[in-house]
TrEMBL record:
GTP 2 binds at residues 186-193, 233-237, 298-301. NCBIfam families: GTPase_EngA, small_GTP. Pfam families: KH_dom-like (PF14714), MMR_HSR1 (PF01926). One of its GO terms (molecular function) is GTP binding. It comes from Rhodoferax aquaticus. Residues 3-167, 180-353 form the EngA-type G domain. This is GTPase Der. GO terms for biological process: ribosome biogenesis. The keyword Nucleotide-binding applies. The keyword Lipoprotein does not apply. GTPase that plays an essential role in the late steps of ribosome biogenesis.
Amino acid sequence: MKPVIALVGRPNVGKSTLFNRLTKTRDAIVADFAGLTRDRHYGNGKHGRIEFIVIDTGGFEPDASSGIYMEMAKQTRQAVAEADVVLFVVDARAGISAQDHEIAKYLRKLGKSCVLLANKAEGLKEGAQLVEFFELGLGEVVPISASHGQGIKPLLDLALTALVPEQPDGEFAEVDPAVIKLAVAGRPNVGKSTLINTWLGEERLVAFDMPGTTRDAITVPFERNGQKFELIDTAGLRRKGRVFEAIEKFSVVKTLQAIESAGVALLLIDATQGVTDQDAHIAGYILESGRAVVLAVNKWDAIDEYQRELVKRSLETRMGFLKFATVHFISAQKRQGLGPLWDSIAQAHRAANRKMSTPVLTRLLLEAVQFQTPKKSGMYRPKLRYAHQGGMNPPIIVIHGNSLEHVTDAYKRFLEGRFRKEFDLVGTPLKIQFKSSENPFTEKESR
């Protein structure tokens, strides 16, 4: 699971600037998922080989008892509860305030791992200007400048080293290839828990006709026909503006972590509701995470033939970017269509971990070029020479040659289709990377 970092502090101390700095982009905010309100943003960050989730919270007033400030405080408290480490941001130039003392008092009571950051510290003398912040009783004060990027690397070293054990180069955490980790994702009340209970043959998970019953991602071991699975029932991702309980808002973190840690994601869609924008948002996140995916339209027995046609057309238009995924029409409650679903899950898992040899990839590439030459761009025509596999889950194919930056998107799709057909890559995203050789005459020509 990715570590979670929460940014906490009073208003206008630079939390959002730090959030943008940690995520390395201003549009890394996951704003389409449930509970991601304007005063709470989620983003992904990476430090070396460590990936993490950042939560930007609104201005924190622990003792707020009414109005919007009480709601913001409630959400911030939940963010702190979910986080592995809290970054408490203070303003180095404005100095310490009574509100800083209140926040520090709250954090000390929790005993949560906490790092005290003095933001806007560019050009200040550490000893003189920062000594007052030791009054907060949270240990060492780390000076940073979020706007200038100063002190960010040492900060992440300090915050993340204790959370993620360092691994020697070339070594990764062991994953049992014999176990398929399956995350069941979807909007609230689409029947995720009911489906898993049907698979297990018992009421193992709480299933109730009220959206948001599941509060956390729950892992259940399961075996079918000799194949071992880990079933992950995730809390529903609800459309923005439809979530009112603060605890439910933080099911988002666990859901995103569950999808990223899974080998295959099963996206469940409610046939009675049709394919919604939120279904497309969840599918987009699964695709962005590189997970293999299978689509299942639940409650298929509850709609008539006309509605079924509408759902199928909606799948083609709104889920067009998941054409590689298999679609099943099922009824979890009546146990209809569940057998073929297992076959597609196993197929997607195999495809995501497919090994592709360099000679076969290169042969396919050269045959594709012979069948259809890449389009010329100005004076340049891309020359594709050889290909090899660059990774698995999702499969990555690296193509080498000259002037490959001029390869068109249409030609990339053409190549992807040939590779998918040869290696039966059904149910998994496929990434194709191009690496152009350097022109040895470039330097001479510039002289």
